[in-house]
Amino acid sequence: MNTLANDKFDFDDEDTFTEEELADLESLSEEELDLDFDEDFEFEDIDLEDLDEEDWDEAYKEPVAGESSALAKSAEADLPSLQEEQALTDIEDALDISEGDMPESPVAESVENLSFADDDESSFTDDDERSPEEAPADVPSVEAAVSAAGLTADYYEDDVPQDGDHIPVPRINISVFCETQTVSELVEASAADRRLSKAHVTILMGGIKKAVQHFQHESTPNLLIIETINGGQELFDGLSSLAEVCDPSTKVIVIGSINDIRLYRDLMNKGISEYLIAPKTPVQVTRAIASLYVDPSAPPIGRSIVFVGARGGVGSSTICHNVAWAMAERHKSDTVILDLDLAFGTASLDFEQDPSQGLAEALAAPERLDDVLLDRLLQKCTERLSLFAAPNVLDHDYDLPASAFEEVLEMVRKGVPNLVVDLPHAWTSWTRHVLQNADEIVITATPDLSSFRNAKNLIESVKASRTNDAPPYLVLNQMGVPKRPEIPPEQFAEALEIEPTAVINWEPQLFGLAATNAEPIFESGGKSKAVAAVDRLAMLLLGMGGDKVYRNKINLKSLFRKL
Q: How far apart are CA 427 and CA 406, in angstroms?
């Protein structure tokens, strides 16, 4: 509308004409009626056919043959966005989702706002838990809705919730070595995902070369994610160098930009757990990690390390608790202490925790123990150290079947890299079963005749039932007590055919102060030799050096083999 018309009628984009305004409009001249219609301009009670052809703007004339009018060109320009709007509308209609229910961001919806049956505050009905076979036939799937709307699968496959999305990744250590800032930011966003809340993610820049340098002096994590901008022989040479400094149990995800099926097959044949091509959203990274650990049929990720004393009073529990603390806090590897001395366990005292009935409840009904219940029963001592404490009550009998202990241990091992078991000095069916099925055994003895005899019997029993396993670790504790006759370490080594892994001197002030203050000896002892010996034992059990650790001269396939 020209200036005169606007001054007279004060039109807005969405104004319509009343009868009085129409009368005034008819009195305007052709020059004053130089209309420039807007997209949202509307007429009421006007017969457009009565307007002269000169009244129309050039853009609204009929197009010349072979040309399109300006209005048609504008419509063609808007066609893609209109088609996308229509496609989204079709999806809403097909899925019967109102506009208010649609998520602002598909990624944020799948990562942050979903609730599942494992959450006690969720309020699912029976209909929510129906299997796909039980769903009504008239309810379309997401795939069908997207297909009906004319969109490709790429639109939804990474953002729509999938089976297993509600299962959290266990307490594992994840190290990520990135080449680009884009991938670093994606992994950082993925680390904030609720499914990775239990995992500890460390992000470093530098790719494979940086990883090789880093793990020369550090223990390798449960999962290693490597971004590479290379391919071909250069990539495989880098992985070969990495194999020389990594533990065989480490799983590896490679992130690359080369979309080549032959490269993918070669990496899979070498034992790489997953090859991820240039992820676009944090959900893709999260799912790649979760897919390696949420399979219920997969074996446990954790290693069970059982500490047992050659006799009562040798300090096995004290060594056990301090080694577990060192593994968690000094070497940053998540650890759970399982105190199986149900009546007289001291783990709760050593870490200043209240005794709990949680372990007794789990052993009484192991079939009820799942991830959610386990998280409630565990007592968190530090960020990386948790405790499954003994109940310390004498009004119950603890004559339980070996299968109950086995089920509880297997469930705990599924969610943590290191399960440290404090086994009481007793010989029952379940203690023998726990000992014989451990991944690592640490026998603590003192340099006296009864410890010598019992340690010899334990080692012979263990060797007979574990012919393909490494021999136990032997710790000689309380060495050098004044005026006490002692069996020297050399005689232990000769008779037992095992070299003592650690020899810990008699330091009553250090261990007494730590016990009284309910703190580890690392916080009381400073640079004590006993502290150094316990720390070295923790490093050996984590695979950070020593004769029992398969760190050198391992081939690439054995390094990256799946558990």
A: 16
- What pLDDT, on the 0 to 100 scale, is given for residue 230? 83
- Phi-psi region for residue 483, left (φ > 0), alpha (ψ -120 to 50) or beta? left
Among residues 328, 418, 319, the alpha carbon closest in space to that of 382 is found at 328
Quote the pLDDT of residue 397. Answer: 76
Which amino acid, residue 528? S
Q: If we measure between CA atoms, which residue out of 481, 503, 491 comes closest to residue 449?
A: 491
Q: In 248-394, at which residue ranges do the beta strands (DSSP E only) sit?
A: 251-256, 274-277, 303-309, 335-339, 379-380, 385-388
What is the C-alpha to C-alpha distance for residues 491 and 288, in angstroms, rounded to an integer? 52
Among residues 268, 267, 255, which one has the least CA distance to residue 229? Answer: 255
**Is the separation of the CB atoms in 459 and 443 below 8 Å?**
yes
Query: pLDDT tens, 193-205?
Result: 877 877 889 999 9
Whether 140 shows a pLDDT value over 70: the answer reads no
Sign of CA dihedral 476, 477, 482, 483: negative
Query: In 99-206, where does DSSP find H-type helix?
Result: 106-108, 142-148, 181-191
User: In whole angstroms, how large is the CA radius of gyration of the chain?
Assistant: 35
- Please give the domain boundaries of the chain with CATH numbers for all domains: 3-77 (no CATH), 91-155 (no CATH), 173-290 (3.40.50.2300), 303-525 (3.40.50.300)
DSSP code per residue over 377-446:
HSEESSSSEEEE-----SSS-----HHHHHHHHHHHHTS-SEEEEE--S---HHHHHHHHT-SEEEEEE-
Please list, in sequence order, all residues whose beta carbon lies within 8 angstroms of the beta carbon of residue 315, skipping any fewer than 6 positions away: 309, 444, 446, 477, 478, 511
Tell me what pLDDT residue 287 has.
Answer: 86
What share of the chain has pLDDT > 90, as a percent? 31
Average pLDDT for 57-83: 50
Distance of alpha carbon 534 from alpha carbon 540, whole angstroms: 10
State the average pLDDT for the chain.
Answer: 74
Do the beta carbons of residue 539 and residue 331 sit within 8 Å? Answer: yes
Phi, psi for 246 (deg, rounded to 5): -110, 155
Identify the DSSP state of 168: P
- Band (488; pLDDT cuts 50, 70, 90): very high
**Is residue 66 scored above 60 in pLDDT?**
no
Question: Rounded CA gap, 82 and 380, in Å?
Answer: 54
pLDDT at 193: 80
Please check the confidence at residue 447 and state whether its pLDDT lies above 80: yes
| CB-based contact 251:291 (threshold 8 Å) | no
Burial of 493 (0-12, 13-18, 19+ CB in 10 A): middle
CA distances from 26 to 17, 30, 198, 214 (A): 12, 10, 75, 84
As a whole number of angstroms, the distance between CA 422 and CA 320 comes to 6
CA–CA distance, 216 with 120 (Å, rounded to integer): 44
